[in-house]
Write a structure and sequence with these properties.
The protein is α+β, with helices and mostly antiparallel strands. It is built from 17 helices and 17 strands. The longest helix has 20 residues.
């Protein structure tokens, strides 16, 4: 019989990796709590119609789509925002605004597998819905910064842009929506020459072409200076000027909040999802060429799903990508520093006593493994070392008669006899 392999683009997480993943997930939940985001849980399978409504051609072409047994077109979620928007447009529509909603889980896209890119991956997703104010956008940037820090990353940087700058140009030049989306897709992949050719073929004016060429080249980390230059470049395109002003307001709020965020503004930056209407951003670490997270403002999505007009801004963070970045930077603190104990009965008749002692320790919050392989003492201690245990508790007949056990410190190799009621103190010391 041939050996079974994981399906292409999927992978197993072994205990150490799973522990690290759950640790980063716990930080994501902690950040949600610190910023007042309430968790919701949405289905992994949604209707194809919902997921494809505004995802963009790039994402649509990479969805896992199938017919269920009732003949309905369904798909595995390629992102969270559509599901959250569906909830806000329906079940939550009469709840007070703003909504601060958080979800976490697996996402599916049929991408070409490579380092940091799989077909099943994990995201923590935060949406702030109901406010069109720049402080809402600033909050999402600050929240992302907080999570990267909490996860243990030392160096990371933001790339920021504003969809309104480019959309303002294209709308004033009367380019069709479909053409605009195709241009943005190309720009997202940094295929600027092809993007500019599409703009030209769509009949854009020479002024527009010149402006675009200069915008694509314009980027820098002195963010407010770059925003001034953008505003200067798009003079005469009213909506683009408004977009640049909005971007300045958001970035000023972030810098005045005292938050130190490493940011670069890129005027020609675009993202693959079609629903963005305002600021967009991604967060990177310098040693990897993939984004650890990204998001932006989308003010028309809830309406698209039949809800009230609801301005919104959100971000998704790649939990497994953050984990990869932390491993690359070797910046992980020791997780789960609690003491680990193994309980070893000297002979079979003492198994029940060993279980009793182990339960007493667990009730006090200590991680305990009981020797269940029937190994001899020397072998059991050797195994405990291999598993990086801190203490071995040896349950022997002679000691038990006096209500005691032997406790062995596996790092120092010292051991002593301790009364059962004093075990906790001995371990904590």
């Amino acid at each position: 019989m041939s050996e079974f392999q994981t399906v292409r683009g999927m992978r197993d997480f072994l205990p150490e990796e799973a522990k690290m993943m759950r640790y980063i997930e716990a930080q994501a939940r902690r950040v949600a709590e610190l910023y007042g985001y309430k968790e919701i849980i949405t289905p992994v399978v949604e209707s194809y119609e919902l997921l494809s409504a505004k995802a963009g051609e790039e994402v649509r072409s990479r969805m896992f789509v199938f017919k269920d047994l009732g003949g309905r077109d369904v798909a595995l979620r390629p992102e969270f925002t559509a599901s959250v928007a569906r909830l806000v447009a329906t079940t939550l529509r009469n709840e007070p605004r703003p909504f601060r909603l958080f979800c976490i889980g697996s996402i599916y896209r049929y991408d070409e597998p490579q380092r940091g890119r799989y077909r099943e991956f994990w995201q923590s997703n935060y949406e702030l819905m109901g406010s069109s104010k720049p402080e809402a956008d600033a909050e999402i940037l600050m929240l992302t910064n907080s999570l990267m820090r909490e996860a243990g990353l030392r160096k990371f940087a933001f790339k920021v842009g504003h969809v309104g700058v480019l959309r303002g140009l294209f709308n004033q030049e009367k380019l069709e929506d479909k053409v605009q989306s195709a241009i943005m897709q190309l720009m997202d992949k940094k295929q600027y020459d092809e993007a500019l050719k599409l703009v030209e073929d769509a009949g854009a004016s020479e002024k527009c072409m010149t402006t675009l060429r200069e915008l694509v080249e314009l980027k820098g980390s002195n963010v407010l200076v770059i925003v001034d230059k953008i505003e200067e470049l798009v003079k005469g395109y009213e909506k683009s000027v408004e977009a640049a002003k909005n971007l300045r307001e958001i970035l000023e709020l972030v810098s005045k909040s005292g938050f130190k965020i490493d940011m670069t503004v890129e005027a020609g930056f675009a993202r693959g999802l079609e629903y963005y209407t305002g600021i967009i951003f991604e967060v990177y670490v310098l040693d990897m060429d993939i984004a650890l997270g990204g998001g932006g403002r989308y003010d028309r999505l809830i309406e698209l799903f039949g809800g009230e007009p609801t301005p919104a801004v959100g971000v998704a963070h790649g939990i497994d990508r953050i984990m990869l970045a932390v491993q690359t930077q070797k910046s992980m603190q020791e997780i789960g520093r609690g003491k680990k104990v193994v309980v070893i009965p000297i002979k079979e008749e003492l198994r029940a006593e060993a279980l009793k002692v182990s339960q007493m320790l667990r009730d006090a919050g200590i991680s305990v493994e009981v020797e269940v392989m029937g190994r001899k003492m020397a072998k059991a201690l050797e195994d405990a070392d291999r598993r990086k245990m801190n203490f071995a508790i040896i349950v022997g007949e002679r000691e038990l008669k006096e209500g005691a056990i032997v406790i062995r410190n596996l790092a120092t190799r010292e051991q002593s006899t301790v009364k059962i009621e004093k075990i906790l103190d001995a371990i904590k010391d």
